[in-house]
Amino acid sequence: MRFHIITLFPGAFRSYLGESILKRAIQDKKISVQFYNPRDFAAGKRGRAVRVDKRPYGGGPGMVIEALPVIKAIEKVRATIQKKSKKSTVKIIWLSPGGTQFDTHFAQVAAKKYTDIIIVSGRYEGIDARVLKIFTCEQVSVGPFVLTGGELPAMLIIDCVSRQVPGVLGDAASLEERRVASREVYTRPEKFTYKGKTYRVPKVLLSGSHVDIENWKRLHT
């Protein structure tokens, strides 16, 4: 699975992708994550910071990212993918609060159906909507709320889709969505005392009865 992220702030991803499971998945080449900054596709004098945001038509307090730098970034991604393999299957995700609700089923389908996912990550008041007239994108939302940018949603999608890629988690049984997984989990020690009160692991989890344990998990999912 190859992720291609179009964002003004690629540095925002460094910490999360550099830790734990996703770091290992990248090192093992189970997934790859590439970044494309619209500023790199905007006309401007060499050596100077290039602005790609302008005041919105119709008024408003924020700024809107220009269409052309984003269009050129997407073109670059598609050309790179095509050069790597003509058999690639590509999906473009346009992050939007009003889009299709992202969920585990979406991630499962994406991991199975596509080799490359392009995620267009906006900022400020958004990206000029004319980009959507040029490319076929699926507008996707990660929840009923508004964030300052699309970087967090993009990381969420990378994480959730990557979990569905064979080998990323090591053990397929680690996929909670494929088994009965309780929202309550416990580990050693069997009991401990805190401020004079003893806290114990539920007895059923110590019973050794797989049937009783599975029933308990179902009640606590």
How would you characterize the overall build of this protein?
With 221 residues, the protein is α/β, with parallel strands linked by helices. It has two domains: 2-172, Alpha/beta knot (3-Layer(aba) Sandwich), CATH 3.40.1280.10; 180-219. It contains six helices and nine strands. The protein has helices at 14-17, 20-27, 67-84, 104-113, 151-162, 210-219, and strands spanning 2-6, 32-36, 53-54, 64-65, 90-101, 116-120, 138-141, 191-194, 197-200. Strands 2-1-6-5-7 form a five-stranded parallel sheet, with helices on both faces. The protein has a two-stranded antiparallel sheet with strand order 3-4. The chain has a two-stranded antiparallel sheet with strand order 8-9. Helix 4 (104-113) crosses helix 5. It starts with a strand and ends with a helix. The model has no long low-confidence stretch (mean pLDDT 91).
